[in-house]
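TL;DR need structure tokens for one chain.
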Amino acid sequence: MNTLKFWSIFAVGVAAGAVVALIYAPQSGEETRRQLREKYDETADSIRDRAGEFRDRAGEWVDTASDYAGKASDFAGKFYKKGREVAEEYASDAQSTVKSATKAAARRAQDLGRQAV
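>> reply
TL;DR here they are.
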């Protein structure tokens, strides 16, 4: 059950309990109004307290999520950098291999050309 639904049901229960208590309690109208005011104030204070607790907890959740997002971003940046370095290294190696193979092929072609003559 989510928090809002819980507190909504709680508030309705408090109100219903207060009404039933007033109907069955023999007292003056002034006393009844005072009791209603007290119950209202107690309920409002309780709701404010719970809302403050929820706000604090939500702030902690946001901070935690922000920390995780920062760590994930740092990791992704490092992963990207390392991947780029490895790719550049392989590209450099491939270029060197191609140059070496081209030179070897040219020498071999020259050797074959000399043998053919």
